[in-house]
Amino acid sequence: MNTMGSRACERPPVRQVLVLRALGLGDLLAAVPALRALRRRLPDHRITLACSPKLADAVAVTRTVHQLLPTTAPGRSVPERLSWDGRPPDIAVDLHGNAPLSCLPLKALRPSALLAYSEPCGPPWHPDEHERLRWCRLLEWYGLPADPGDLAIAAPAARTSAPGAIVVHPGAEAAARRWPAERFAAVAHALHLRGHRVVITAGAGEARLAHSVAAQAGLPPGSVVGGADDIPFKQLAALIANAAAVVVGDTGLAHLASALRTPSVVLFGPVHPRLWGPPADGPHRVMWHGDPDGDGRPGDAHGRRPDERLLRITVDEVLDAVDGLPPGPVDVPRLPETDE
C-alpha cells in the first residue's frame, strides 16, 4: 500500500473561524456588518458563531456564518466554556466585549490567532463608539476591511396577518428603557383613530403589558402578538418587514426594523443614540432628550425605573415623528423558506 501517495491525496483540513457573540437579538444584528466582513474577507474559512440557540433563525437570515455553536450565559455575562469539538480554531474572534474575561472561553480553545480588544496587540477600546462601528474597527485593525453600514438583511418568506400595520412595541428588557405604558397607549389610540391598523407586540413575559396598552388604546381583539413566549423570529421579521412603521424603544426590535429598512420611531433614554441608534441615512426618526454635549452613557441602561431622559419624550412628539416617516412598507428582498 502506497501510504505516501494516499497522504498526498488527503485534503487539507478546513480552516475554522469561531466568533463569540452570546448576547441578544439587537446585539446580533449590530454585529452583522462585522460578521459579513468575516464571511467576505475569509472565503476559504468555515465560520462558526457561538451564541444563544434561541437566535438560530435570526442567524440563518443574516447569511453571515456557516453554523451556530449553541451557548448560554445568564444576562449579558460571558459563557464559562464553549462546547467546541475537534482541533483548535484557526482564528477566534471576540465580538462579545472588551474585558479579558470575554476572551477566556476562546483562549481556552488555544486558537492559532485571537482577534480581540483586550489583547496586547489589539486596538484601543472607545466607550463612546457606535456598536456597529466598534466591531468593524476591530476587524480593520487586523487587516479585514468592514463596512458598518452593511447591516441590511432580507425578510423571510413567512406571511404576516397584518400587512401595512403600524407596530407598537412597549416592552424593553429593563425598566430604564421602557417608556410609560399609558404613553404608548395614547400613541396607539391616536393612530387607531386616524384609521391605521395598530399591532402591539410583546416578548416573553410581556403579555400583561401589551394587553394593557391595547385595552387603553381601544384596539380591537387580536391586536396583540406574542406575550406568553417570544414571537418566533420568522413571524416577527415578516411582521416588521411588511409594517408601515414601527414605534419602539431602544430594544432588539428597533435593530430589526433597521436591518429590514422599515420606517421606525425609536425612543432613547439612558443611552445616547450615537451608540446604538439606527443608521442616519435610513427611514428612521430618533427621539432623544439628553444633554447633546454630555456623556453618551448618562444613565443606567439596566436600571429599575424609566430614565428621566426617556420621560422627557412626549406623546405629541412621537405622533409628529410618525407623521414624518416615509411611506411604508419598504419593498425588501425575500428569502426562500430553505436557507443556504
Automatic annotation (TrEMBL):
It holds the Pfam family Glyco_transf_9. Residues 283-307 are annotated as: Disordered. InterPro entries: Glyco_trans_9, LPS_LOS_Heptosyltrfase. SUPFAM superfamilies: UDP-Glycosyltransferase/glycogen phosphorylase. It comes from the Bacteria. Keywords: Glycosyltransferase, Transferase. This is Glycosyltransferase family 9 protein.
